[in-house]
Amino acid sequence: KNQVEQSPQSLIILEGKNCTLQCNYTVSPFSNLRWYKQDTGRGPVSLTIMTFSENTKSNGRYTATLDADTKQSSLHITASQLSDSASYICVVEGGTASKLTFGTGTRLQVTL
Amino acid sequence: GAVVSQHPSRVICKSGTSVKIECRSLDFQATTMFWYRQFPKKSLMLMATSNEGSKATYEQGVEKDKFLINHASLTLSTLTVTSAHPEDSSFYICSARGPVNTGELFFGEGSRLTVL
Questions:
Q1: Which residues from B are below 8 Å from A102, CB to CB?
Q2: Which of A12, A96, B32, B69 pairs with B25 at a CA distance of 20 to 30 A?
Q3: What does the alpha-carbon distance between residue B43 and residue A33 come to, in Å, rounded to a whole number?
Q4: Cα separations (Å) of B92 from A22, A102, B111?
Q5: Distance from CA of A9 to the nearest CA of B (A)
Q6: Which chain A residue shows the shortest CA-CA distance from B90?
Q7: Residue A27 near residue A3, CB atoms below 8 Å
C-alpha cells in the first residue's frame, strides 16, 4: 500500500532556529515528491517538487532533500520566522495510477 | 505562478440544504481539477477527480450523489454538497495542474462549510 509518513507530528521552535522535517514513503513506482506549506484555514502552497534524479532543491530558506534509494526526504528550514508557523505536507506522486499520496503533515510552531 | 480561486471561502447552511462551491483557474485552462476534504489537524483526502466535459472520477467511499461535481468549462469546476448534514461540515479544497507540464499543482484557498 502506498503510504507517506511524516515526523515529527508537531514541533515548536524558537524564532531564528533551524529545523528539519522528515518524510518517508513507500510509493512505487516513484514519480516525484513535493513539499507544501499550509497555513491554518488556507490552501497548500508549493515549496518544492523533486524528481528521481534530484537530491536537493532550495526555495529561499527552505531546502528539501531526497534519497530515492531509502525513500526518504527532509525539509530543512533555516533561520525560522514567525510566519513559518504552519503545517508542512509531504506529497508523493506515483503508483500504478500516478496518484498523489499525502502525508499527515508536521505542524510547526515558531515562537518568540 | 498560476492562480486557483475558490468561492465561497466560508459558508454556513441549514441541514438539508445544498451548497455549491466553485473552483476557478484564473489564468490558465485546467482540463483536470481535484477536490479534497480536510478534517481538523488532518491531511487532505482526495474525494474526486474532475474532468472537463466528462464525468468525475470518485474515490472509494465518496458518495457520487452526495457530492456532485461538474466541470463544464476549462476554467471552472463546481462541487455541490447535496442535502447537507452536520457531518458534512469540513474544509473543502480544490486543485489544478499548472499550465506548463511540470506537474505543478496549484491549490485553491479552500472553502469552510459549516452545516447547522
A1: 43-46
A2: A96
A3: 16
A4: 26, 15, 5
A5: 10
A6: A41
A7: yes
Put simply, whether A11 touches B (Cβ < 8 Å) is no
- The helices-and-strands tally (H runs, E runs) of chain B is 0, 11
Q: Tens digits of per-residue pLDDT, A9-26?
A: 999 999 999 999 999 999
In the numeric block, the cell 465518496 is attached to B62
Take residue B60 and report the three cell numbers written for it: 472509494
Asked if A89's CB is within 8 angstroms of B104's CB, the reply is: no
pLDDT, residue A77, reads 98
What is the largest distance, in Å, between two alpha-carbon atoms of chain A? Answer: 45
Q: String of b and e for A74-86 (b: at least 16 CB within 10 Å)?
A: bbebeebeeebbb
* A33 and A26 Cβ atoms separated by less than 8 Å: no
Cβ atoms of residues B81 and B73 within 8 Å:
no
Question: What are the tens digits of pLDDT across the range B86-116?
Answer: 999 999 999 998 776 667 889 999 999 999 9
